[in-house]
Each structure stands twice: as structure tokens, then as C-alpha cells.
Design brief:
The structure holds 2 protein chains of 2 kinds. By secondary structure, chain A is an alpha/beta fold. Chain A contains 5 helices and 7 strands. Chain A has a single domain, classed as fumarase (Alpha-Beta Barrel), CATH 3.20.130. Chain A starts with a strand and ends in a 17-residue tail after the last strand. Helix content of chain B is about 40%, strand content about 25%. Chain B has 2 domains: about 100 residues, 2-Layer Sandwich (Dihydrodipicolinate Reductase, domain 2); about 120 residues, no CATH class. Chain B is an alpha+beta fold. In chain B, the strands form 3 sheets. Chain B has a 4-stranded mixed sheet. In chain B, strands 6-9-7-8 form a 4-stranded mixed sheet. In chain B, helix 2 packs antiparallel against helix 3. Chain B contains 8 helices and 10 strands. Chains A and B meet through helix 5 of A and helix 3, strand 3 and helix 6 of B.
Amino acid sequence: MLRVESPLSLEKIAKLRKGELVYLSGIVYTARDQAHKKLVELIKKRKALPFSLKDSIIYYCGPTPSPEGEVSGSCGPTTSLRMDGYVEPLLREGLKGMIGKGGRTSKVRELIKKYKAVYFLAPSGCGALLAQKVLSKKLIAFKELGAEAIYQLEVKDFPLIVGIDFQGRSIYPTSSESQGR
Amino acid sequence: MEKEIFTQIDKAVRRANFSLRRDVFALIEKAYKLEKNKKAKLALSWIIENVNIARRKNLAICQDTGLPLGFIIAGEKVKIDFALVEDIKKSIEASYKRNYLRASMVSPLLRGKPGYKGVTIYLDFNSKIRGLEVVVFPKGFGSENKTKLKMFNPTVSFKEIEDFVITTIREAGPQACPPFIVGIGIGGDSSYALYLAKKALIERIDKPNKDRFLASLEKRLLRRINSLNIGPMGLGGKTTALAVKIKTHPTHIAGLPVGVNISCWALRSAKVKINNVKS
């Protein structure tokens, strides 16, 4: 078991091996389908991004609204595979970590190796548990997308498993990676 | 909105989203005890902790509070009209909003800002019940995306049907949040086969099928699925599915539709009686 803090660095990432249990603390940014589409459009048009991607972590998550008295509503991971087509431009801008659920395409595995990044798995369907690890939640961009907007979450001891390490080694056999959506 | 209807629906929405069904939770606890794979056991312990936190704090078990489905099931001598169905639908929408559940519905092609409108209603009948029952079923889409339908030839072997189910599960993989509950509908027309597959999920999953042949088929499929080594979060182990439920209906001599509808481990549904129905 390892403790890791964001923002990430190559030194921190190089310590992580596939299958390892990791407790993450620091800032992560939520983004799912529509937010990815918008971010990549902004990059293509060379416009300013709503937050700096350098050494950052994106969490594939659309949280429920926060009930009164709670820092965050339920906030578990969504299927990562749907975001695979958008990964490269983000890595080029300095993204270092991704959190989600399920396998990735072999293309993303190669990209993770090329850009020396890391992919984490969060406990699937465990949004209430993960909400307990959120210290603060702030709307950053794309308010019009509702749950699909980008939120900045400050997390403490977020339990994760390394899905793909910086050398492109995946916890899942290749056959189950490219399947499904 | 009729107050009595809203009160009952609100109860169902809260129960479905905050407290995992007892039959489902019992099977998860049993799987946790039996699981030998360390990582899979850790993933199951997270699930159990998550369920307990959600129940205690009235938090959504999963942030994907689903496409809310409303099954309206009418017993004998119940009269249903448009206004009643609208009332039930609007009550589900209002209850979702009030309870901080996620607005996940969008226009299918234009997308746009997700809202609460778009509850899907199914009307069904059951001669064995009195009055009117409503089942609220928040269907998560990670698993819904893995739905499969196959129109088999009537002369197909049972083995080929089983293999189709196994392939569907293998392709669903970790993305659909195992351990699964697998609903299978066999017969009817194409859409009815899928409807039966979904309906199988709102019934109790801890009882063997009353039909002995189907019970043995469910058992055999469950054994095969649990030897796939997918496991919770895809981390391996012997807990890939908690249950397989099959429902059948007569079909045409020319065909054999088979629908498979998977539920993630968080199979959430709750049933309430609606009392003030004029009968």
C-alpha cells in the first residue's frame, strides 16, 4: 500500500506498479463525456483551458448533487473506455493521471507508456464511500452540463488500485480491454 | 400531484437509492465470506462499507442514480388512466430532485443539460395482487450499455443459447460493475424478450426459479459465469455474478428471441402500494 499526493510527478508515478493499492490525496478534476469533448475542442482551437492540465489528475465522475450538510454527494467512477478517444490531446497538455473504472483500449495503454502517466481504478459503484474522502468540492467549468460539469475535488486517502502503470502494464488481460463501450 | 401518491413514490425512490435490497445485500455478504482472492475480497469489502454508509447517511448508493424506471403493476379490478400514470411519473421526477439524486436525463441526440424529465414507465398486470403496485427501478447505465438481444433459429441448441449469455457477460467485463445480476428473457417478440429480462431483475433474486428446468439452467449459467474469473472491479476471483434469473413467454414457430439485461451489483428497486386508486 502506498500514499500518493497530487499533483503528480514522474518520480511519484514511477513508484506505482499495476495492481497496487494506493491512497491518493490532493486535487482531482471530474470530467466525463461532454466535458472531454469540450476540453479537446478548446485545445484544438488553442483557447485557454479552465484549469491547468500540467501534472493533473482527471477523475471520470459525475457526482450527485451534495445534500445539505454533506461536502459531496455520491461520487464513484464511470466507464473509462468512453473517454479513450480524447486521451492523447490531454496527455500532450500535461495530464498525468486518470481515475475511472474498467479497461482501456490498447491505444490508451501505449499512450500511458509514451507520456509516462498512470491509470487508477476507483471502487466501482462505491460513490457513498468515496464521498466520505472528499474534503471540498468546487465547480470549475461548464456549469451548463450539470453533473457532467468539471468539479475540483480535494480528496484525502482516496482508495485506488493501479490499473495501468507508467510502463503500460495493465491489470486486465488485453482481450477484455478493447471490448465493450 | 396527488399527495398520497407522492408520499408513497418518494418512499420507493428513497428506499431504492439509499438502502440496497436485502436479497442483493445478503448475496454480497455471502460472496465476501466465500471469496478467496485477496483483491476481490478487498473490492467486496468496499462495496459492503459503501452500502452501509449510504443507508446510514441517506446518500445515493451509486452516483449513477440511473434512468429511473417506473413499473406500474395493476392487480384485479384496478382502473388506470392517463392522469394517474402522469402523477406517478411526475412524483418520481420530483422525488429525485428533492432527494439530491442525479439529474442524468438528456435529449438522446442533442444531449444538452441533464435534467429530471424522462422517467420511463412500464405498465404491467398481475392477477395475483390486489390494488396497484409501483416498482421504482433506478437502472444504472454502465450495465445497461451491455444489453444484448439475439434472434436465434428455433432449432438452436441450448448450448448455443448458453454460450451467447456467457459471451455477453465476458464482453460486459469490469465496466458493468460486477458482481452482476443477470436477467434473461426468452420468447415473445424482440422487445418483449428484453422486457422480460429487465422484469426478472425487479423480482427476488435469492429464490430458485419455480420452473425446475429454468432453475437448473440458471444454476448452470451462474456456475459458468463465476468461472470466468472477472470478479468485483475485474480483479478476478469467483464472484462475477450473484444470480441469474430467467423469464420465458411463448414465441413464434419461426423464432427464439433471447434478451440479456445485466444489472451492476447495485441492483436497486423498491416496491410500494398505491392505495387511493378507484376500483
